[in-house]
Amino acid sequence: MKAGQALWCRIVPGGLKLAIRLTPKANIDAIEGVETDDAGRCYIKARVRAVPEKGKANKALIALVAKRSGIAKSLIRIDSGETSRLKMLFVEGSSEDMVDKILRITQ
Questions:
Q1: Which of 15, 48, 66, 81 is most buried, by CB atoms within 10 Å?
Q2: CATH C-level class of 9-106
């Protein structure tokens, strides 16, 4: 991954971290691209139909990212922001193939 290529995705020891802004209770499950907020933070914009109760929206987000990337759900977890719209996902593993799969989820 080239510097500055995807500020919403970074390689960390043991895997990748993804910055995501999640909107629950949406009409569809979708990844809607990348946005930058007024503070300069870059994140993936995602929507899920699930409600934000008892972790249902978080589970739906993990399932959506897994489906779009082709990476197993068991390798993806919420690293921070469980009760917030802004979340950090951790994807275990950092092979070049995995990085390519993650970078494609917004296309």
A1: 48
A2: alpha beta
Domain boundaries, the chain: 9-106
pLDDT, tens digit, for every residue of 40-56?
889 999 999 999 999 99
The 8-class DSSP code of residue 74 comes to G
Q: For residues 69 and 101, is the Cβ–Cβ distance under 8 A?
A: yes
Q: Which two tokens mark 54?
A: 């008892």
The whole-model pTM stands at: 0.90
pLDDT per position as a tens digit, 84-102? 999 999 999 877 888 888 8
Residues 6+ apart with CB under 8 A from 104: 68, 69
